[in-house]
């Protein structure tokens, strides 16, 4: 069985999880639109993008890692470290953003590269290596400063506050554009390059991938580097959003990113999933927050409760699917 | 007919593992356009020879010549690039990717660095067509059967301009039609001049497909023969190195048994097996015959407590019992030797001795270690009784061949001195010699008073060993036949086919 048929349209089974997430997003949006006044507008969706651009970028990196069957717990801390480095360099010595931003991206990628190298060369569980990376990066934040550092650089704040007007009254921030470009590039890489296909093959069956002559070691190191880069870029986008650097930024974001990837239909065992699913996963998480803020009376911790429930449901939904794939 | 120059020559190959001399002065010649069978018992060195050839293990002695040039491969990848491709029994592909990708992964057609999916599908289609296989190449590999996956693996292997194709037990999990499909593919490749090295335990298949064969025994070369000049009896004799003892019925006459050990009345589990009644006496060998999926394993699992019975009752030694867990069954001294020895908890890095005493130790609890002398005594006894080879209990189990690993699993259960031993396909995938030994052992055990429930797909084997045969069909116990003069494989086949309705 390779396709399910709905009336005349037929959907290959592999797209099913993405489709479920897509339907969930639409259903939530419609339900919100019926329940709350002013909810059913395009800007609400765009605001979800604006408020979650950094998470989207981080989740893209996480998707690469999870597709190989790995995990990266360090992303939240690397995001925080990136905001901290960016803020301190711009505020302290007053370095210009066009030097600081590339430097931050380089540091993030470097951290990812080192973790990937350790995971691969010493054959250590990614969980434990990136856990170490998580503590390390979070700790480094406090060596820079224990307080929040505001960013006042003129170029930086001007860029952060730019509104890109679309048609009608709709607008997005530059961060959204950057995030979407990242998504597009990542989707192309995963689908149309040998590296991307090696990512899937490694996640499908690492031993086979090795015997088929694929560069498994290089692929694994590269995905952690990609994840490190995406975390650093997410950190830069978060600095645009917060206009500050702080060691307590993005606490627990690694788990949000993992949740988004899983809700988007990517299997934690690796080898199956699409980037579009991750985008939808981030949107679903964002829309939950929006709905709760529209509800007004509910505590924001309800977000966590809903995310928890959703994760349970999605993991159960994936169960029969993963059974078939792994046989 | 002039013999063409061999495409591959291995000469004087030697390989030493810790504690085992795996290969000693072995030669192998492959001619272009032939199917060459590599024959030998388990542990004769077939797998090692293939691993040396494909660069998994370096050879300790000897030379390998490919098309006249001396080669030494450091990895399977190097061997592949030189034109030696291997398809293993367990298909090494990625089930999550499409058929086309699995064939062309790492060699995808590209345009400006971008994978050209359309050309890739076309190329995959073309490669499969060359093997006379037609598939939806964009479907994920996991939707296809193991047989088809093997074809895909072969398509991948021969695309790399292969001169030598090694098929290591490709047929062991295929059904008859699938085997024929594989053979068609092999004949086609043979016509193209590819040399195929074929390993299989099925003698009929060897005689159907192969042109010549090389026989190994205990890591040494026995000889190289054209298949047409060697009869099956001669082949078996050369493989096991002695005249095969006449494999007659080991239990000549039906004995009478009067001490029931396990009595099942109306025992069943919905969806798994219809309620059945079965009595196993002390010292009795009960054979379970039936097709794959007829409920043979399900009966065994119920009697071992691995599944809960939905209905009926069970009495052991006259006392009603319900077996809720395998542990409960073990306290009644019921042992179950399942069909997957790999998943049955052999710990590959532990030694033979450690693996054998594992279950004994577990029943005593960790606070009362088995004294070393007792261990050595017991292990020594079973290594000898089962003729585990090499007879050194201190080498890691992973260095043993498949058949010998099976014997280690058996030893582990026997050491508990069970009253009922359930053997699920104990002889599958092992060679004639080891098979005969295990059969002999089953007969000896039952003479000593142990009850044995013996499950096998091979009717001859069931007939040879059992005192009575239970016939299963479509998850129902359809007949119980005493094993006397009138019972033949034909009768059994007839019973399975008719569902026991004739009599």
UniProtKB/TrEMBL annotation, chain A:
Name this polypeptide is given: Simple sugar transport system permease protein
GO cellular component entries: plasma membrane
Regions that span the bilayer: 15-32, 44-67, 97-118, 124-145, 166-190, 221-243, 255-288, 300-317
Keyword Kinase recorded: no
MF-aspect GO terms: transmembrane transporter activity
Keyword annotations: Cell membrane, Membrane, Sugar transport, Transmembrane, Transmembrane helix, Transport
Topology of this chain in the membrane: Multi-pass membrane protein
Automatic annotation (TrEMBL), chain B:
A single MF term (Gene Ontology): ATP hydrolysis activity
Domain ABC transporter: 8-243, 254-499
Principal subcellular localisation of the protein: membrane
SMART domains attached to this UniProt entry: AAA
InterPro entries: AAA+_ATPase (IPR003593), ABC_carbohydrate_import_ATPase (IPR050107), ABC_transporter-like_ATP-bd (IPR003439), ABC_transporter-like_CS (IPR017871), P-loop_NTPase (IPR027417)
Membrane topology: Peripheral membrane protein
Subcellular location: Cell membrane
Record-given protein name: Simple sugar transport system ATP-binding protein
Organism field: Nonomuraea wenchangensis
